[in-house]
Design a protein that fits this description.
By secondary structure, the chain is α+β, with helices and mostly antiparallel strands. The chain has seven helices and nine strands, in the order βββααββαββββαααα.
Length: 285
């Protein structure tokens, strides 16, 4: 059996169902919540710093390898006009291929992850509005085909990916990390409306211990369905919203890099109100 969301994600465990869930809890990941919307951390500071250290070490180790390869093998291969040993040519070609792969890995994976780690909005939060059924993502990415060397842009991500999604078009998938310690990552598959064709992968919950630990997924589903619903056993609410509201009442949402129109859109209590907000700010669909 495979995922119905294609292309399939490597490490797939299973597709997740939406709806009420008995597994519903958040530790310190919730930034803010009220009856209209909630904002949840996706990457904590410790996790971001750890990822940054790993990718920084990879980047640092690749630099001398590339320099040594170019200086000792690539330059002599092209600049030495005398006869060169065939074994040297083979080694040089191997180094040439490895250097190309290192440069490709740096540009496509290492440097973008470094930028995302150190320059993305704090905690890379995600917002769910339970009245409009909208989800908001604000991430920073490195890629840009028009590099600008001005100091204003040099040390900042080259592309900010700010997007609004319909919850109906986002689908949960659990992925294993294949380590000795059983962990899962929950990905949101952003699909074309009404299809299973994935346009983008969004990390929702990263590296949570226990392959069946879906507490964040359950909390979000309970919040979006009915925050005040009691469970069948009568043991209390599936989601105690008043408790979370009290804990997050003093949160400052302006520090996360959201554009002004989104800060207003979070508070929209209906699709009509959301449309008015977009019209006010000149936001086109």
């Amino acid at each position: 059996m495979s995922s119905k969301y294609q292309p399939q994600q490597f490490g797939w465990i299973g597709d997740l169902e939406k709806g009420l869930s008995p597994r519903s809890e958040l530790d310190d990941e919730l930034i803010y919540v009220n009856n209209t919307f909630c904002m949840i951390k996706r990457f904590g500071s410790e996790q971001r710093n750890w990822n940054g250290v790993i990718f920084l070490l990879v980047f640092i180790l690749m630099i001398p390898f590339i320099f040594i390869g170019i200086n000792n093998f690539i330059f002599p291969l092209f600049l030495n006009h005398t006869e060169i040993d065939s074994n040297f040519i083979k080694i040089s070609l191997i180094f040439f291929i490895m250097i190309i792969l290192c440069l490709f890995a740096n540009y496509c994976f290492v440097i973008p992850e470094l930028f995302k780690t150190f320059f993305s909005p704090k905690d890379s939060p995600i917002v769910f509005n339970r009245k409009t059924n909208k989800v908001y993502i604000n991430e920073s990415e490195f890629f840009s085909f028009k590099p600008r060397l001005h100091h204003k842009y040099l040390l900042h991500p080259r592309k900010t990916n700010i997007k609004e999604y319909d919850w109906d078009d986002l689908h949960g998938v659990a992925i294993s990390n294949y380590s000795k310690v059983s962990k899962n990552t929950i990905m949101l598959m952003a699909c074309k409306p009404g299809t299973y064709d994935v346009e983008r992968h969004i990390i929702l919950d990263h590296g949570r211990s226990g392959l069946l630990n879906l507490s964040r997924w359950g909390w979000i589903n309970n919040y979006l369905v009915d925050y005040d619903l009691y469970d069948e056993q009568g043991e209390g609410k599936l989601l105690n919203l008043a408790y979370y509201e009290q804990q997050t009442a003093d949160a400052d949402l302006t520090v996360y890099g959201w554009p002004e129109w989104m800060l207003d859109a979070f508070k929209a209590s209906s699709l009509d109100e959301l449309a008015q907000i977009k019209q006010k700010y000149g936001i086109k669909e």
